[in-house]
Amino acid sequence: QVHLVESGGGVVQPGRSLRLSCAASGFTFSSYGMHWVRQAPGKGLEWVALIYYDGSKEYYADSVKGRFTISRDNSKNTLYLQMHSLTAEDTAIFYCARETGTVMIQTNWFDSWGQGTLVTVSS
Amino acid sequence: QSVLTQPPSASGTPGQRVTISCSGSSSNIGSNTVNWYQQFPGTAPKLLIYSNNQRPSGVPDRFSGSKSGTSASLAISGLQSEDEADYYCAAWDDGLNGWVFGGGTKQTVL
Fold first, then answer.
1. Fewer CB within 10 A of the end CB, N or C, for chain B?
2. Mean pLDDT of residues grouped by 10 in chain B (110 residues)?
3. Which of B99, B100, B105, B107 to mutate against chain A (most A CBs within 10 Å)?
4. How far is CA B81 from the centre of its chain?
């Protein structure tokens, strides 16, 4: 049974940094691409970042490019999101999600999601 | 402003068939497959439809998806009270090199 558990959220001041973690279990973590998706309070879903199964490639939303870094440690079955220069617009629940499908990103989907961790950027 | 456009709300009565639209462009829906996610308040999204029209195991067959050109649709046949939720479409965008979501549609059962 796939299990994804996010942690690391909390209240952080504008301009500061925060690192989120997503602990994976129940599947071969090193075989799957992984994503971060966020949802601001009362708003819709926004894709944040993707990392390939082996960490060889990363993609980012324009809104976080240059500020956020996605990474993974396949030996620890853990996904990370390092966030810098946080602003109030980054306040959201952050979900990690597993990607499933084929070798082509364009035809894949997110088949499992964690419960999310809340990041609040406020002074 | 979301890249994919969905109506913010939809409503129907129990037993009715309802559809939710998702409009995109040639760089996303026009080129790639569409997925749909269901989200209940206070919970994580759940995969509902993948690859335009495929249902994961456990999803009732009253949910169906379709795609034509740069638009996609989610249909719910025999609407039930437990279908009251938010629904999101998503697709990869070749121009943005990233995933894009619709703004979400809040489905209400009257």
1. N
2. 95 97 98 98 98 97 98 97 98 97 97
3. B99
4. 18
